[in-house]
């Protein structure tokens, strides 16, 4: 398939309309409000532990990132090869960040709990 044929095939699928973009924007706004509430619930109101607030905020941030990439950057409508090219480095980044968190936060606490 030539690049011109691929371009024609790409343009034949339907992209979201203005109504869908507004709805996605509202969902992203609502998710941001929940993130802010999670921060205040931990910091000012004392309703959440620091760890739980961090997990809530991290998960919502990751979900917002995925929504933006899929819809606003049109990854959902592009070739699956682009999805793979995007997912591999994203998973690698998650792995590295998780390993750094464990190395800096979890392991030192385990050592002090064991009396080291």
UniProtKB/TrEMBL annotation:
List the transmembrane segments. 21-41, 47-73, 85-103
Which keywords label this protein? Answer: Cell membrane, Membrane, Transmembrane, Transmembrane helix
The main location class comes to membrane
**What GO terms fall under cellular component here?**
plasma membrane
UniProt entry tagged with the keyword Transmembrane: yes
Would I find DNA repair among this entry's keywords?
no
Species the sequence originates in: uncultured Gemmatimonadota bacterium
Name the record gives this protein: Uncharacterized protein
**Topology term for the membrane:** Multi-pass membrane protein
Localization, per the record, is: Cell membrane
């Amino acid at each position: 398939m030539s690049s011109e044929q691929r371009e024609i095939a790409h343009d034949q699928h339907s992209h979201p309309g203005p109504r869908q973009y507004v709805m996605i924007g509202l969902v992203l706004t609502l998710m941001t409000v929940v993130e802010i509430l999670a921060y205040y619930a931990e910091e000012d109101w004392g309703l959440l532990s620091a760890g739980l607030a961090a997990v809530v905020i991290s998960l919502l941030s990751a979900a917002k990132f995925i929504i933006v990439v899929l819809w606003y950057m049109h990854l959902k409508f592009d070739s699956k090869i682009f999805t793979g090219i995007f997912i591999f480095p994203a998973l690698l980044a998650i792995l590295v960040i998780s390993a750094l968190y464990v190395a800096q936060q979890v392991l030192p606490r385990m050592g002090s709990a064991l009396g080291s």
